[in-house]
Amino acid sequence: MDHSEHGTSIDLPPFTLGRGLELSPDPFFLIGSLVALALYGWGVTRLVRRGDAWPVGRTVFFVAGVLTVLLAMCTKLNDYGMVMFSVHMVQHMIISMISPILLLLGAPVTLALRALPVAGRGRKGPRELLLALLHSRYMRIITHPAFTIPLFIASLYGLYFTSLFDFLMGSQVGHIAMMVHFLAVGLVFFWPIMGVDPGPHRPGYVMRMLELFAGMPFHAFFGIALMMASTPMVGTYDSPPASLGIDALSDQHAAGGIAWAFSEIPSVLVLIALVFQWYRSDQRQARRKDRAADRDGDKELEAYNAYLAQLHARSGGTAGAARGGPEPETVTAAAAGESPQAPAAAGAATGETGTGAAGR
C-alpha cells in the first residue's frame, strides 16, 4: 500500500533500533503531548504555590507516560510502523497498554480537581463541569467492565481482522484517529482497574484483578493467531517495500510474537500497583482507627469489653442457678409427676424410712 499521502517514504532502509529511535515528530501527537505536560505542570505549580503537597512519584509517572507516547508517535517507529507490521505492533502495545498505565498512575483527574478553582455560587466552571462528567451516566457506561472489556477485545479482532484497518491506514487522518483510539481504549480499560483517580466504578482489589485477567488472555490469543497464520492477514503489510529486505509472513509472525509477549508486561505492572495500593489502603485504615481510638478514648474497645462482661455475667448466673436448684432425684421425681414427699410417706406406711432401709 502506498503511504506517500501521509509523508512516509517507501524507500526506508532496513530497520534497526537506532534508526527506529531517530526523531520524526508527528505534529498532532507532539502538540498534544506538550499541551498535556504544560497543563499538568500548571496544576502541580498551582498546588505548590498554595502550600499543598503533590507526590513527586505521580509527576514522574505522568511524564513517563507522555514520553512513551512521544516514543511511539514522534520517532521513526511511526514511519516504519506504516510499512512493517511488527513495528506497528510495538506502537500499538506501547500506546494502548504502557502509556495509559503510566498516565493513570499520574492521577491527572485528581490533580485537576484539586488545582481548578471553585466557581461562584450558581455558576459552573471547569471544575464543576469535570465533576458533572465524572458523575454522568455516560461515564458510568463507558467505564463499566461490561463495556470496557469487550471494547478492549474488539480493538484487536474487530480492527485487524477486517478491512477497517486497511481503510484507516490509507490516510493520515485515519492513522491518527486509530492511534488516538488505541490510547483512549487503554485509558478507559485501565482507569477503573488502577483506581487512582475518582470514577463512577470503584471495585475492590480482587475484582480489579479479575477484570485485568479477563482481558489479557485475548491479547495472547490474538498474537497466537497471527503467528500461526500461513498467509498475510492484513492487506496493508502484505507487500513490504523491497528496501526493507523482509518477508511479509515473517514480519507478521514477529508482530504476533510481540502482541503475545507484550500482554504480560502490563499485567505485571498493574499487579504491582494494585498490591501497593492495597497495602497503602490497609495502612491508612489502621491509622484512622488509631486516631479514632485516641480521640474517643477507645470507646469501641470498651463497648466490646462490656459486651464480653455481660456474656460472662449471664453464664455465671446460669451456673449459680443450677448449683442452687433441687437435687437431681427431686427434679426427676417432679418430672415424673410425683410429689417430693411421696417416698417418705410410703416409708412411713411400712414402718421404714430411707435410712432404716439402708441400714438393713
Describe the protein.
With 360 residues, the protein is mainly α. It folds into two domains: 10-117 and 127-294, no CATH class; 303-339. It is built from 18 helices and no strands. The chain has helices at residues 17-20, 27-50, 56-73, 76-80, 85-105, 108-115, 126-134, 137-142, 145-160, 164-169, 172-194, 205-228, 248-262, 264-296, 299-323, 328-336, 342-349, 354-359. Helix 12 (205-228) runs antiparallel to helix 14. It is found in: Cell membrane. Residues 317-360 are annotated as: Disordered. The chain crosses the membrane at residues 27-44, 56-73, 93-117, 138-160, 172-191, 212-234, 254-279.
Kindly list the characteristics that best describe this protein.
single chain, about 350 residues, mainly alpha, 2 domains, 18 helices, about 70% helix, disordered C terminus
Question: How would you sum up this structure in a few lines?
Answer:
This is Cytochrome c oxidase assembly protein. The chain is mainly α.
